[in-house]
Amino acid sequence: MKLGRVTATGPDGPDTRLVGVLPDEGVVVDLAVAERLRLTRAGADPVAARRIAAALFPPSMAAAIGGGPAFTDAAGRALAEPPDEAVSKLDAVTWATPIDPLVVRDCSAFERHLLNAHARGKKPVPEEFYRAPVYYKMSPATLIPGGTEVPWPFGCRFMDYELEVGLVIGRPALNVRPEDARELLFGVTVMNDFSARDLQAREMSAGLGPAKGKDFATAIGPWIATIDELDPDDLEMIARVNGEEWSRGSTASMMWTIDEIIAYASTTETLTTGELIGTGTVGSGSGLELYKKLQPGDVVELEVAGIGSIANPIGHPPEDGWRPSPKTPSEGKGG
Asked: CATH number of the domain at 104-313, out of 3.50.50.60, 3.30.390.30, 3.90.850.10, 2.40.30.20?
């Protein structure tokens, strides 16, 4: 199945709706509407039918995934026989991010990306990248769907994209081993970890970050492809800028496997339902590796076979902003 979220205008303002997607037919199905109609036509009280449908298909995809088979079974029924009243044209909806995770991580699982990026700085790949599928935490608050303009961070002079796949976790788990990790994977989505390379490099030189170098926008979407309909270990990945192909790769080239990524993330820390874990950037999947920079007004499109594609326009640099004044050693009150 392909499952996503759209934003509709209701009597009380914008309303987020869960949808099933039928790309070949060019339509989406409002899952709550479909379930409500199914129940009422089977004899349920309309008020009860609405309440049950809302419980199965809340605005939160993470909450819905927590429903387990009750959620996926009901979604499957709706997509098998969608009532006309629940169907909308694919090009007539406004997309929201397909998942609303409590936690977002981004790993570094592709060796070629590491080799390319570190070669640019004439530095070897740190040994730690070969010891574990390391990751950093990202801000869930700055996830954006395809079609949304990417804000240009203040002070950035090197804007970049990163071609990734996002892994959506289906249930909580702690201390999982790789051989058991795949059963935790609910589905996958396209992920673009936009990066302000100069800000990132400056912050990370202090031993922290990437912070402002990353947490201005990460695009995901257009929907989640559930794990039962594709092989996430062999997905072709393509990036285009203004229609021109810049990057091409595959998840088959991952140094760390999806199972190892999930197992490592779960070590001593419970994974959450709906959590999003980026695979990291495929080899040659960023402008940094290609000696290219994004410019204001560029449109970046990422496509992953079996999932779909998202495109985001790049915004313009802000005219003004605040910079902290540098401190001198021993300027703090503590001496």
From this structure: 3.90.850.10
